[in-house]
Amino acid sequence: xxxxxxxxxxxxxxxxxxxxxxxxxxxxxxxxxxxxxxxxxxxxxxxxxxxxxxxxxxxxxxxxxxxxxxxxxxxxxxxxxxxxxxxxxxxxxxxxxxxxxxxxxxxxxxxxxxxxxxxxxxxxxxxxxxxxxxxxxxxxxxxxxxxxxxxxxxxxxxxxxxxxxxxxxxxxxxxxxxxxxxxxxxxxxxxxxxxxxxxxxxxxxxxxxxxxxxxxxxxxxxxxxxxxxxxxxxxxxxxxxxxxxxx
Length: 247
What we know:
Blueprint (H helix, E strand, L loop, with lengths): L1 H7 L5 H32 L11 E5 L18 E4 L3 E9 L11 E5 L8 E8 L9 E9 L12 E4 L8 E3 L4 E4 L2 E7 L5 E5 L1 E5 L4 E5 L33
Antiparallel strand pairs: 1-2, 3-6, 4-5, 4-7, 5-6, 8-13, 9-10, 10-11, 12-13
């Protein structure tokens, strides 16, 4: 401004004024660039401290002291994995024939191999509402409280769903089932001592016990380990129970 005021009084030439103005503009641009660099460095200082959006524990560390961290790294190169383990999600693939008995809010029991003999209670949170064609099962999500941290995230568990209210399931050993072209059946003994093959519906396969929801009543007499070729109307002789010798 001083040089411009001198120009109005013809104290300096116009060329000198233009040179001074250009020099001032160049120096001001350099100052602005340096100021922007200072602000960039101040912003980068904030990255020295990483803040998670929630409370949790670090379950994986993919970097170490002295490693070079590039800004804008490709996806999948996270530095840390933080998990909130106070409430865990459990995913179960339920076979199609059993999904009808599962509802949102249903209860289940969870067992993990690292804590034998302990049972944890879980609740069905949501269902996929679709059958996966590749597995023939539906994905079910459960939640389990883990405030004490006794369950570890990422592990495997055994889940047993509690039967829905009003559903009466009878348990039989798997050896009592007859699987053939007529589906799953059991062999019963009627009051006349003859066999009856009756189709049944399996609710749950628990390994040593198979729960049935249809086809068998509690009062029915079921043949365990029926022989091959058994048919309707075969005569059955029920052996008397062996008595223990007197002592």
